[in-house]
Amino acid sequence: MTLLPNIERRSFLKAAGLGGVAALAGCAEDSTDAAASTTSAQTSDSSGAASVDVDRIAADPTDVPDPVDWSQPRTHDVTLETQELTAEIEPGVTFDYMTFEGRVPGPMVRVRRGDTVNLTLRNPESSKMPHNIDFHAVYGPGGGADATTIAPGEEATIEFKATYPGVHIYHCAVPNMDHHISAGMFGAILVEPKGGLPEVDRELYLGQHEIYTDKAAGKEGHHKFSLEAAKSEDPTYVTYNGEAYAFTESGYGRIQVEQDERIRVFMSNGGPNLSSSWHAIGNVWDKLYRDGDLVSDPARFVETTPVRPGTVTAAEIKTPVPGPIKLVDHSLTRVVRKGVLGVLDVQGEQRPDIYDPNPNGDSGGE
Ligand SMILES: [Cu+2]
């Protein structure tokens, strides 16, 4: 996969005169703000945007641990550090994220049913907030949250056995958990069944969630978390991997895949509030591991599936024809106005027996 470095992304947007999500999405209502902000100076000082700690908060969707290739129970030592980082939701729009390991979603933990996880959560001295972690793959108080609640400068260790299979979410679960999750604190733990998962050509890992801020989408400057917006469940942004339009030509670029692949996508919905109506435009969920259930027979040929907050769903697509496959939440205002769009780019030969965009052959195409 090729991803454009963030610096190219910013340069592209400045060169194109695009200041925000409204302009990118062709949204009329906020275009005044977008236009005004692009004509003002682009420095972060004058726009009110904060200086960023990292150029990129969005995890690479191809960063998935290798499949289980062992057949006896193992113990895994896993350390996760909570990191509070200022980064951009989109160019010119900064936000104070809270993360596991400085990325959204947090790293996938991948184990086999019956394995033991020795988990250390570390909260650095520089943090402002307490954090913890609730694994939905854990039998125990708070899924581990009760024993891992730590102040800045502390760490805590728990050990748990992955007794049941499935792909499950993990998230921060402190009292203000809606804020912490909206700031990025969620991920996935994949507990493979003892027989493993069917082999596929490629696996991808995405995380959808909502960001509730005190400004309109696309308004340049520093956006603060808005409790009012959260209580209304009216997010400013809905994103894959914490950034608006991250995996499109306006962001880090499309995710490059090949023709005739079988691709398994893991999609963790952190929420904190909204159910996703998950759909692949121009494709179908060929196999759907509904709600992350990896033991029942997968559903077949499902067009749109709910992925509720607090759930990781796995689904497989095939790529018989070239062109874009757009992964969306089919609550489409979130796609057009709020950022939740990721595009797979299938490279390959036309297959007119399956799809012919020009059956009369009368266009001036290449
Ligand atoms: Cu937290």
UniProtKB/TrEMBL annotation:
List of residues binding Cu cation: 131, 136, 171-172, 180, 185, 330
Enzyme category, top tier: oxidoreductase
Enzymatic reactions: nitric oxide + Fe(III)-[cytochrome c] + H2O = Fe(II)-[cytochrome c] + nitrite + 2 H(+)
Keywords of this entry: Copper, Metal-binding, Oxidoreductase, Repeat
One term of GO molecular function: nitrite reductase (NO-forming) activity
Cofactor dependence: Cu(2+); Cu(+)
Listed PROSITE patterns: TAT (PS51318)
Matches recorded under InterPro entries: Cu-oxidase-like_N, Cu-oxidase_fam, Cupredoxin, NO2-reductase_Cu, TAT_signal, TAT_signal_bac_arc
Oligomer and partners: Homotrimer.
The protein's name in its UniProt record: Copper-containing nitrite reductase
Organism annotation: Halorubrum persicum
